[in-house]
What we know:
The chain is of the alpha/beta class. The protein has helices at residues 27-38, 55-58, 64-76, 95-114, 144-154, 171-176, 225-243, 269-286, 305-316, 329-338, 366-378; strands at residues 5-7, 120-123, 160-164, 183-190, 214-219, 247-251, 291-294. The protein has a single domain, classed as Histone deacetylase domain (Arginase, Chain A). The chain is 35% helix and 9% strand. A seven-stranded parallel sheet has the order 1-2-7-6-3-4-5, sandwiched between helices. It is globular, with a radius of gyration of 19 Å. It comes from Saccharopolyspora rosea. Belongs to the histone deacetylase family.
Amino acid sequence: MGSQCAVVWDDSLLDYDLGGHHPLHPIRLDLTMRLARSLGLLDGVDTLRPEIAPDADLERVHRSDYLAAVRTAPLAGPEVGHGLGTDDNPIFDRMHDAAALVAGGSLLAAEQVVSGRVDRAVNIAGGLHHAMAAHAAGFCVYNDCAVAIAWMLAQGVERIAYIDIDVHHGDGVQAAFYDDPRVLTVSLHQHPYTLWPGTGFASEVGGTGADGTAVNVPLPPGTDDAGWLRAFHAVVPSVLETFRPQVLVTQCGADAHREDPLADLSLTVDGQRSAYRSLRELAEQYADGKWLVLGGGGYSLFRVVPRAWTHLLATVLDRDLDPATTIPEQWVSHAVRVADNVPLPTSLTDGGDGTFQPWSGVTLSPVDTAIRDARHAVFPLHGLDPADTRD
Length: 391
């Protein structure tokens, strides 16, 4: 069994560029990797260069006519349909190659884990969880998360758990496996009444023959570190324990942060760091250490994403960083040239402490209500008592 971590990265992943002032700007990836390197996180780590995912692998999730539409879109224009050519999903040159390269990165990471070369692998350029079988959605052309999961299933992996901590519901991955009992999808996100895509209610629990394999925890706007972590720990470990995954896949969007411009949760980078550490522990406890880590959303490009995902890389590599670590001047001097007068952070902390009070079964707040609803919807389907609050 492997023990090291594979990091998938190449500057060519920056070609997934939706253009102009689109919120999903690749500068966030560049700044993350620069920050990680400036802190020495990647010293001695040979990053793996991805290749464009073959059509056969993409078609485990996406329809062939959709792939054809993506290929022809730069010439056909918005009339190509399939959700392409919108404000969210503008058409750009070599769109198929750029999107398929992101998917190829997640496939490469999955292959490293399934082969046993490593126990953990990370592709921060991945996590494009909204793309559907036949249309683009939410800045996502191909759903690399689902493509990687489908590939692992085809290799004989029998149970895969997918945990999505992006502020937006992981709708594309849930849809891809809603009727497949081999895949458990868990999503913690801002409540669908208050945020796109408007799905992810606690009542969405899986299709026929897969009851209980979709788990949704919709959280009220304003949920902070303590509330988010309480909800996470009140739901996620229990369903993982009963499902017994062989691989844990996590989508680690950074847009639940309080400064994210597209959503309304209130986490700090300290709360996000605590979430990553919890995911690491869960992979060790319930998936024999097998952990595939993907990026996702995150639109505070200069202040949040680079710090959050530097903590993510540190966590995956077992090179945890002190939150009080000062950001190197080398990074600041580069970032100030591209940050367009955005005030830059000076350390890896927001001053949060990442602590929380475990759920006691009492519903004293909207977060507690969300916990109660999620547990009542899905726990009985796993043979669990939703009222049992024992660790």
